[in-house]
Amino acid sequence: QVQLVESGGGLVQPGGSLRLSCAASGFTFNNYAMRWYRQAPGKERELVAAITSTGGSTNYADSVKGRFTISRDNAKNTLYLHMNSLKPEDTAVYYCHVWRLTQNYWGPGTQVTVSS
After folding, report:
1. How confident is the model at residue 42 (pLDDT cuts 50, 70, 90)?
2. CA dist., res. 16 & res. 14, Å (int)
3. Is 71 exposed, middle or buried (0-12, 13-18, 19+ CB in 10 A)?
4. What is the CA 34 to chain-centroid distance, rounded?
5. How far apart are CA 31 and CA 20, in angstroms?
6. What Rg do the C-alpha atoms of the chain give, in angstroms?
7. Alpha-carbon torsion 62, 63, 66, 69, what sign?
8. pLDDT digit string (tens) for 77-110?
9. Closest CA relative to residue 94, chosen from 72, 115, 76, 114
10. How many CB atoms lie within 10 A of CB 49?
């Protein structure tokens, strides 16, 4: 079965950096586009970044453009989100996502807290 497991979250000061990872299993990772979403308290889940199956094309929410970078290592079945210049408004639970065979799959999420 499809499994997505995020890691790398934590507490960071404003202006700091974090790298999130998502270990994928149970499907042919290099056949699927992947996405990172986030959900802040009291807000709807929002798309942060997406990457094609080969990694050749990416896109980002306007709020993170120029600060976050999505990447993938298809040999390791792993998705990444490099986050720089973090702001308090980036505080949220971050989720890895794949759309496969008409179903959405999510990991359990990893908490990112940006605070001094």
Report:
1. very high
2. 5
3. middle
4. 9
5. 21
6. 13
7. negative
8. 999 999 999 999 999 999 999 999 899 999 999 9
9. 114
10. 23
